Fold this sequence. Notes:
11 helices, alpha/beta, 22 strands
Amino acid sequence: QTVNHPVKKILAYDGDDPPEVPDGWQVISSDEPHGRPAPLRNLALSMDVDWIQYWDADNSPVEDHFSRIIALAHQAAEDVGVIHPDIFKGTGNNGVRRLPRNGDLRLGYYVDTASCWRREAALSSGGWRAEFSTEDWRLASDIQASGWRIVRSGIPFHWQKTPGSRTSRGDIRRNVWAARRIGIVTLLRGDKRLLKQWAKDLSRLEVPPNAGLTLVLDGDRKFSRMVQKLLRNETRFDRISMIHARPTRYPVSDFCTVHARVAHLYGEAIRATPEELILTWEDDIRTKPNALHELVLETLMSGDLAAAAAPYLSRDSKQRIAAARDKSFWVGALHRHDLQQDEALQVGMVGGGFTLWSRAALEQCPILGPRYYDGTGWLGWDGFLCRRLNRAGWYCKVVPAAKVEHLTV
Length: 409
């Protein structure tokens, strides 16, 4: 069903020299100080309009952008809350696309303010909050969680840093961190020594304002009480969920049994984890305080990124990293020297020891048990998952800045 009445629209320009718009548009602009656009955006929400086009000083529209975007708004289905342009960085057509090739935007994609927002959808999710200079991501996630869709417009849009720009890269990084909803999932396998180290690392780990914790307790009652005692003063999480698994003893050398059980428990835990990004954190991984922060920042504007992984040594080598360049098997291994750079590396496979996964990716390719391939051998739950994600059009990265330590190498 589509909207057939005339669309009432407004351009809210975050600056003092708004672009020209066709007849029929209201225009409001802002003289707020640097990085304080929320009052203008909420003023637009208070007006009697159907759709709001926000626009920043560093946006560069195509000639007929505003006519085309409002035509799409006029035809939009009633569950469409945001119409998003095709974003390019820079002013030329050779800029970098930041969106998936087709379809609705999945939960967790970067959403730029320069989208056209349905007033009803933005109001239903609380509007813009003054404490954030870029609230786009948070509001878009809330809108989607409320059942609205975010769709692509197909209209090219260019972004270029200008003297009038209100938002610095530091602002963006801070707000990406604040906006993402992270669910940490850990399997605690009954090892008290590892538990104490894990709890110590958790207490020091930087976590965003919207984070949840899901624990699978694979131990006896005494172990469960120990976990609860160690977490009794933990107040940083919106929720802490515990799943009590039946204690199982199996030889760690039984690859198939171990990975089948881990896959089953992770699958159960992820179903109980509602956040948009999910960190799988094995209890034998020792991490540093900023590791999660580095992984979250890597998700900025990475539309088809399925996994951002912290590198660590694999169990069978003190030089090889638990990642591979090949998209189907553990071929083309990474080594220590590959991590001597600042940029994240796009790879085919990553280990799941300390890895941030997109919920949208895991919904398309759920975690399954290990698989055996003649001539190559076993793929564990994480390798088999990466293989399937690659074939579904997703990709993975290793983030050297988030490097962690594997205690049971």
